[in-house]
Amino acid sequence: MAWSAPTIRAMTHARDSKHAAEETLGEATEVPAARPAADDQPRPGPPKRTRLGGTWVAVVVALVVLTFLLIFILQNLENATVHFLGAVGSMPLAVAMLLAAVAGGALVALVGAARILQLRAQNRKSRKSV
């Protein structure tokens, strides 16, 4: 089937008119992008944990513990006799218990520090041998 010249001109004119109308429409109004359905959107996960956040939690916990410790000391001010390695002394019960807890914590910290130093030395040796 052969197309006549007037038919070809009419088809070309219609095609050009359609493109011109689309360009004009695109400039005049913006079509908003289609939004995905609520189920299709990725849900944000829990917030990332940071050192500052961990420090904040540690400070709050420490304040609560110190508050309870202060209450304990103020409620236990009766004198108690303490015997240690032949030494005898008298001090408030809460203070004696606090000193025992601090001495125990210091002992644990000392053993922990020795282990950390041991692991660092071992790590240093293994890096030198590689």
TrEMBL record:
Residues 13-22 have a biased composition (Basic and acidic residues). The chain crosses the membrane at residues 52-74, 94-117. Residues 13-51 are annotated as: Disordered. InterPro entries: LapA_dom. Residues 75-129 form the Lipopolysaccharide assembly protein A domain. Keywords: Cell membrane, Membrane, Transmembrane, Transmembrane helix. This is Lipopolysaccharide assembly protein LapA domain-containing protein.
